[in-house]
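[Automated response] Your request has been received and processed.

Submitted sequence:
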Amino acid sequence: SDPGVLHYANCGFSNWLRKYEMLGDFPDTVHGRQNTMRAHLAARDLVRRGDRAQLELFYRMFVMGDLVGELALLATRGLVVRVDAARHIV
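Generated structure:
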């Protein structure tokens, strides 16, 4: 089978929050061009504001994609997969 790449950029709320705290107030533009990663910019702004409830809501909605049970629905349609093997390797 073909290899796959597992990328854990936002593994858990506390790690996601720490990531944006470390990134700090990064600019909207990169090399003179508008940053088009809107969720990245929104996360930066929310972390700057520091409202924990808003941060958790954003994380569940846009990072986890499971605010109202979407993951279960996607899984029943075969659109997401759980990769448990990685947990045993790392």
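Summary generated for your ticket: The chain has five helices and two strands. Helices lie at 13-23, 38-49, 52-63, 70-76, 85-89.
If you did not submit this request, please reply to this message.
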